[in-house]
Amino acid sequence: MTASALAVRGISKRFGSLIVAADIDLALPLGARYALIGPNGAGKTTLINLMTGMLRPDAGQILLGGEDVTTLAPEQRVRRGLARTYQINSLFPRLTVLESVALAVCERRRVAQTFWRRLPAYREEIDEARQILGVLMLDVVCHRPARELAYGQQRLLEIALALASRPRVLLLDEPAAGVPRDESKELFAAIGGLSHDITVLFIEHDMELVFRFAARVIVMVGGSILVEGTPAEIASDPQVHAVYLGKRERG
Fold it and tell me: How far apart are CA 243 and CA 40, in angstroms?
């Protein structure tokens, strides 16, 4: 049996009479590249919020590398290797790209409170930040303020900040949202080049990107998982066409 980097078992969540997660089971194998798709309101972001501890489930378990983290706070999950990005950028616009990532590295090493006092003293943290930026092809803009970056580069910077926590699992909530199409392809090329020591689950509405970069696709509808399969299986599944892909094609 293949070990799971992240698994949820029987996860359920409701707000009053509204069911947003209904007895969900899924497992992400080590090093996997999975996409999570479905219509608006399907529960995709809610599921990520449950995985990361932003929401507490009413029932079920969340396992990170086999450890039950269901009751842990978000920051405790981050320290155990679970990181995420959001639909909307949350950057420090006046910091340079290198300063932003170096600060995130210092936060992981728990020296961030003295980061600004003796910046040259943090050579190891700065070197690690440069390595992360190199992986995401941001090293060429490392001295530019975040606010001056193209939007696709800003999304990559947010991923760099997540990588600074050294995650085992990375959850990306619509990383290409608002990014011009040519930049979104470059963004996903960088994501695709991440180490396979990192398991990746991403939410995305662009099916070309989903089918190009995901090894498997999970389809959610109405707070439940409708089906999971390879891109080819999902593209030809009549249920998926009926509730999602067909509507997008007609739209």
Answer: 11
Per-position DSSP letters for 20-84, written without gaps between them:
EEEEEEEEEETT-EEEEE-STTSSHHHHHHHHHTSS--SEEEEEETTEE-TTS-HHHHHHTTEEE
Instruction: Report helix, strand or coil for 213.
Output: helix
Q: Which two tokens stand for residue 25?
A: 């089971």
Residue ranges, the chain, pLDDT below 50: 1, 251
| C-alpha–C-alpha distance, residues 64 and 69, integer Å | 7
- At 35, which amino acid appears? A
pTM: 0.90
Instruction: Sketch the domain layout of the chain as residue ranges.
Output: 4-250
Q: Cα 71 to chain center, whole Å?
A: 20
pLDDT tens for each residue of 124-152: 889 999 999 999 999 999 999 999 999 89
d(CA 237, CA 75): 38
Q: How far apart are the first and last CA of the chain?
A: 41
Listing from the earlier edge strand, what are the strands of the sheet with 18-29?
Answer: 18-29, 4-15, 59-64, 67-68
The CATH code of domain 4-250 reads 3.40.50.300
**Helix, strand, coil % over all residues of the chain, rounded to 5:** 40, 25, 35
User: Residue 243: its pLDDT value, please?
Assistant: 86
Residue type at position 17 = S
